Amino acid sequence: MSAFVAPGDIAARRTLAPGEVLLAVDNVSLSFGGVKALTDVSFDIRKGEIRAIIGPNGAGKTSMLNVINGFYHPQQGRITYCGTVRKRQRPSEAAAQGIARTFQNVALFKGLTTLDNIMAGRTLKMTRGFFWQCLRFGPALQEEIAHRRRVEEIIDFLEIEHIRKTPVGKLPYGLKKRVELGRALAMEPELLLLDEPMAGMNLEEKEDMSRFIIDVREQFGTTIALIEHDIGVVMDLSDRVVVLEYGRKIADGTPDEVQKNQAVIDAYLGTSH
Ligand SMILES: Nc1ncnc2c1ncn2[C@@H]1O[C@H](COP(=O)(O)OP(=O)(O)OP(=O)(O)O)[C@@H](O)[C@H]1O
């Protein structure tokens, strides 16, 4: 097991046991003008689980992730995180509380190397100001060394040593997704949100990414919520699945329960309700 185990000072403040509710979504509704992206959606994410959010195109999955990480503010409903009802907050505040995410379309600094992109994920953890960072002297230097060590551990964990000095713009898509996962892990999140982590991947890349997601949970105790269109992957990976359609929750349960749910079958076959 890697030395990179402690999920950070945030986790130290928490006493949640595996299986306790880490994040609760209660009666959340979100509209964009006349478009109702989410209507009265409630579900929870328990500590240590892999939770999938699925549904047909336009069902509201990404909107839900954006509400959870503070990018969108719902007109109704509330989010409770670690037992505290959350006030309106920005993504940076959610990140500081231990919520990290990756994006549907890879969002990396294309001109920077793998190493520097993952290092960028450490920004939140840096305690020395910009002045000291520039001087690279004394305590700032010590801190930078510690951050670099942590980043190297993540690179080892994700098996991307061979591309650590490669500008990410030159990498194939599957590896870019892995670097993006690395950058999110650099934040040592308590809750990791993955928006279509396997999109555009071939079978082998999907198997690799599935293995890394499971290992992140096993080794770091990170709770994971993911959106994924590949239903086979979702059913293999997830402990529980919430299903959205037209912004409403239509099912919630184990992969087995959800697969047998008639509303889910109809939604995926295109039957209108
Ligand atoms: N910023 C926005 N402005 C206006 N409408 C939006 C915005 N974001 C999402 N929507 C609308 O909200 C609804 C839900 O979109 P969302 O992207 O959350 O769905 P999704 O399930 O993630 O879809 P997909 O699987 O295609 O990514 C859609 O009708 C979409 O057009």
From TrEMBL:
GO cellular component, one term: plasma membrane
Keywords tagged on the record: ATP-binding, Nucleotide-binding, Transport
Alphabetized Pfam families for the sequence: ABC_tran (PF00005), BCA_ABC_TP_C (PF12399)
InterPro entries per the UniProt record, alphabetical: AAA+_ATPase, ABC_AA/LPS_Transport, ABC_transporter-like_ATP-bd, BCA_ABC_TP_C, P-loop_NTPase
Keyword ATP-binding set for record: yes
Keyword Hydrolase: no
GO MF term list: ATP binding; ATP hydrolysis activity
Domain ABC transporter: 23-271
Annotated PANTHER family: ABC TRANSPORTER ATP-BINDING PROTEIN, CONSERVED COMPONENT OF ABC TRANSPORTER FOR NATURAL AMINO ACIDS-RELATED
Protein name: ABC transporter ATP-binding protein
